[in-house]
Amino acid sequence: MPTKPIKRIGILTAGGDCPGLNAAIRAVGKACITRFGIEVVGIYDGFRGLAERHVRRMALDEFSGLLTLGGTILGTGRDKPDKLRMADGTYRDATKQCAEGYRELGLDCLVCLGGNGTQRNALTLQDAGLRVLTLPKTIDNDIWGTDVTFGYDTAVTIAAEAIDRLHSTAESHQRIMVLEVMGNRGGWIALAAGVAGGADLILIPEIPYDPKVMVETVRGRGERGRRFSIVAVAEGAFAKKAVAKAKKAGTELPRTEDRKVGAGATVAAELSALTGLETRVTVLGYVQRGGTPTPTDRVLATRVGTYAAELLAKGKTGVLVGFRNDECVPVPLAECADKRKLVPLDHPLIKSARLVGTCFGDKC
Ligand code: F6P
Question: Are 8 and 39 a contacting pair, CB within 8 Å?
């Protein structure tokens, strides 16, 4: 049966914001309206906006002036359509309300810009009968099915600059400087920023660390006359001991949102206690998600956004727009929605980092 042509789409941004979201909204909106005659309805504050009809038809000129703007003009939220938080703190399944909203608005497809949670939520709505299409957004770069996500390059650039700045103060004071960056499950930001900034130790969730190895690294540097050290740590990094304990107990490791604080403080406390050296911690936090996107992110957001419009014009839905080998590709949502792209242990960047003497806390 031929699929209904797409004449009107809804567009929303969900999950944590990131630089490049507005550039992607602009790309989808401009290409849809001017090239393909597709109307665009903006949906505010993520999936909640669809359930609660917080929506507005958008005119072409609203997509101007967005390329360099941080955040998202549509607002965002972490609500799940099947688990919407109510004012009294309870949750309800709002899948039906979202489906009704989609029909009331006369939408032919819902375009969702988001990270892993959004891929899952879009699939939930697809299973409820909606046509959906997603774009890969997150500073974490951990979406399965795409080589890279928009927002990531900006976060790495900010984190690398922070390491550069920490270097001079670390050296002046002969201190250990620990920089905690985002990355709850995947260590992509810590890895790339750590390599770019020349961190001495890079700690990522994929490689549990041993505090004794960290100490050996710092002492080794001291013996070579390097009286300071820089540690780039992903918020979700854990010591080997903690990982083994959780495994034995058959429990999940606590994530940042549960333990309220990332790995930086723990790592700094361990290093200070075991080396006796002055240690300071900097938590970069939301600075990584704010402000204008880098040119690389603007370009990526423009490419995946315009490609999404081309797919819509062809009536193709049910996919994530992935970016692989410098090309946009449609990846079936059902294939990628419940997977996460972690740093492979044989990643070439880990190999290169080890070859220049960077330690990952597992071996010297
Ligand atoms: O969007 C991804 C992310 O920035 C993670 O790196 C981080 O752990 C999380 O969001 C923080 O979430 P929130 O914005 O809900 O505090």
Answer: yes
